[in-house]
Fold each of these.
Amino acid sequence: MDKIKVGQAVNAVGLKGELKVYHYSDYKERFEELSKVYLENTLYKINGVRYMKDMVILKLQGIDDRTEAEKHKGEDIFFDKEDMRILPEDTYYITDLIGLSVVDEKGDKIGTISDVIQNSAQDLYEVEREYNSKFLIPAVEEFILKIDMNSRTMTVKLIEGLMV
């Protein structure tokens, strides 16, 4: 079964076995929609979710004291791919964008999406070219003309200086 990484346990909270989680989701409330998560490869039922600033505090069934919670510090947190939300049209999961072939308006291959950097203004697509050179393309309509998930391509409009 495919799993999606949604966060990392960074510390224990309190004495009752809660975990402080750094989340990778676009919104921390995502954990409220889940009934279960994996700590590495072990499945746990979610018994409670609360927040401490931008951190998620999880109470998982079977982790009942601070000592047990501390054992999980640094572990990655996953959920089943089947629990992914259905996104609105023209919205994509980062995992689906990684590996897309990037082509210009003429159809010439420029490179491959190697990462998506989430920025406060807008996301940035990192495009890896031959010989490991990389450049960034802002994820805005001015530059991203089309994303075709069937052919796994992203068509972009380049401007002078973008591929420095």
Amino acid sequence: MAVLLVLSTFLVFVVIDFFMSRNKQVAGAHSTSQPRTAVVPMLSSASIEGILVPDQLRFHPGHTWLLEEGEKTARVGVDALASRVIGAAEKIETPKVGRWIRQGQKAFTFYTGGEKVELVSPVEGEVAEINRAVIKDPSLAAKDPYGNGWLVKVSVPEHDTVERNLLPQSLVRTWMKEEIRRVRAAAPALAQVAVMGGAAGVPARGASWRGMTHDVFLN
């Protein structure tokens, strides 16, 4: 009788273990089949004449943004207006891991249509990681500037340096609206920049386009 009890108990545990293992496998299969989501969570955002401006990001006047991911880490990218004006880049250069970058100084170079556009860093610190996906496929910066098109992660030594020279969040929407107006005034061919997607909104490169990108992105 005791032998039968032991065998019955053993069989119960075997059955329980089988179903638990099966449930884990099913859960794992479901998790891997989920669609890939954007790197930057879109908590809330505004569309300024067709240009998306996520509320949780901090913006630099040079049209780059940052997202604080921790006390001393920030993710960096270019904003939607910059990516719309530049269009689908053929190549993007970023600082190497370990390099120190300074807020407001040239850090990123986009090559497009035989021209190059330089943009500044919105923060000071050491480059901790480069988005290899955007280096491999530069069009991501135009398709998804706030998500999978991010550029680098930066290790920020002092939190106060993050705030320096960034736009007050209460003024970002007004600033973006004025920047759209300024871009259109500087390059009339960009009159539809906010409503035409990707490279379709980019005019032929020339002296006026180069001057406009320098004035707007480097301030």
